[in-house]
Amino acid sequence: MSIANQPSHLPAPDQLPESLNAGAPLPVFRTPMLDGDRQLFAYEILFPTLAEQAQDLPQRVLSTITDGALTRLSRGNRAFVNLPPELLLEGSDVLLHQPRLGVVLRPEIANDPARMKLVKQMAQRGCQIMIDASDSALDDSLAVEALLQTAQFVRLDADRLSPEAMRERSSQLHTRGLGVIAGQVNEHTTYQRCLELPLQAIQGRYLLIPQPVEVPAVLSANRLSMLRLMALLEEGNPGPVEMGKIVRDDAVLSYKLLSCVNSAYFALPRQLKSIEQAAIFFGATRMRNWINTMVMCTMDDRPPELLRAALIRAHMCEGLAGGMPRGSSETAFTVGLFSLLDTLMCAPMEFLLTQLRLSPEISDALTGRGGPFGQLLQEVVAWEAGALNSGNTAPQRIRRMATVYLEATQWADQVFSVASNSRAAN
After folding, report:
1. Is residue 71 helix, strand or coil?
2. Which residue of 147, 197, 205, 326 has the fewest C-beta atoms within 10 A of its own C-beta?
3. Can you give the residue ranges of every domain in the chain?
4. Which helix (H) or strand (E) is 7 found in, with range?
């Protein structure tokens, strides 16, 4: 569990013999689709196909669906599973009994009578169908028309389609009652264009990319206050008493911190009643990470999925730093958490780092992806983008990342939930 004392005598999972890793989680990750108000519309659940698991992929995917892992990963929200085509037949019984999970299908499936029969059965049971049209025009054939009549949503590729084609196709689909998703929205200019279209949701890397801002950066009073608090935590290596004084004047932050560390998820042996007690229990470095986490969770004007992404990065970096020197896990957590600070604060990373005065190894990792922590962060970013493959990354490492990712999503969702409920209570 993140930010808690871990047994140091156990070998890391990626160092275990091959036979002991047989039950490791299947690599799977979620990507959010946000509506025009930047609230979650749905998750897409993807299973990257790796060469070493190609033969048993269908059975492992079905097992992941039936054991409830996908429900936990989607937090009970609407989710669309991007399945290999062969699974529509091999897993027909499982899929027909999972109506809460929608599926993403390519238009070519319209020409396969057996799979189309199953798609219609799934739709009749309440399963929502999304057609991933990408940049291809949906032809006027009877087969494609039958698929469109079965589907509720169509996803278009905003990166490949021209702005004119994107506007025309989204309008046509919207007019006939289909929800349109803009996919591959990977920069803010495209995102701004998409806001003017009749879209149900927008999906892409734009969410994690800082918006262009004027230099020098002008932060709101609230952002400056957050930055000053973070800076105080970095100065002079404060101990438990000093941390208590730093946080004491912020009643909301104190409440969030204690609510989170005392939540049932972490199952502490006793309730912690003050910041000083919490700092003594967790240690000053870990407590500093907790405070920074809660500070970032107070940014209620930023998309919740962006905050969750920062928390997931933090936990993944920490969990994957097991083979590094002692104390590295806390530094790795900071690198992951702060890797989206420029996007969250709407300010250049270089400007933020001049205010925070972090250690050189953290600054190098955040600005140039330098050093071991920079490499670790690159690995995590590649994972969340679905860019890892078995040709460049050892299978044992991928299995380890799959385990850590699932832990990270559950941890991030729990922490964000506690922080949000604390905010509502105040």
Report:
1. helix
2. 326
3. 13-208, 221-425
4. none
Q: How many CB atoms lie within 10 A of CB 96?
A: 14
Q: How many CA atoms lie within 13 A of 423 on its CB side?
A: 14
Q: What is the 3-state secondary structure (H, E, C) of 187-243?
A: CHHHHHHHCCCCCCEECCHHHHCCCCCCCCCCCCHHHHHHHHHHHHHHCCCCCHHHH
Pairing of strands 179-183, 201-202: parallel
User: Model's pTM, two decimal places?
Assistant: 0.88
Question: CB 97: neighbour CB atoms within 10 A?
Answer: 10
Q: Are 46 and 386 in contact (CB under 8 A)?
A: yes
Superfamily of domain 221-425: Hypothetical protein af1432 (1.10.3210.10)
Cα distance between residue 198 and residue 200, in whole Å? 7
Cα 322–Cα 297–Cα 407 angle in degrees, nearest 5? 35
Residues ≥6 apart with Cβ < 8 Å to 357: 231, 234, 235
Give me the sign of the Cα torsion angle 10, 11, 17, 21.
positive
Tens digit of each residue's pLDDT (9 = 90 or more) over 173-212? 999 999 999 999 999 999 999 999 999 999 999 999 998 8
408 against 268, higher pLDDT: 408
Residue bearing the bigger pLDDT, 84 or 277: 277
Is the Cβ–Cβ distance between 179 and 157 less than 8 Å? no
**DSSP 3-state of 180:** strand
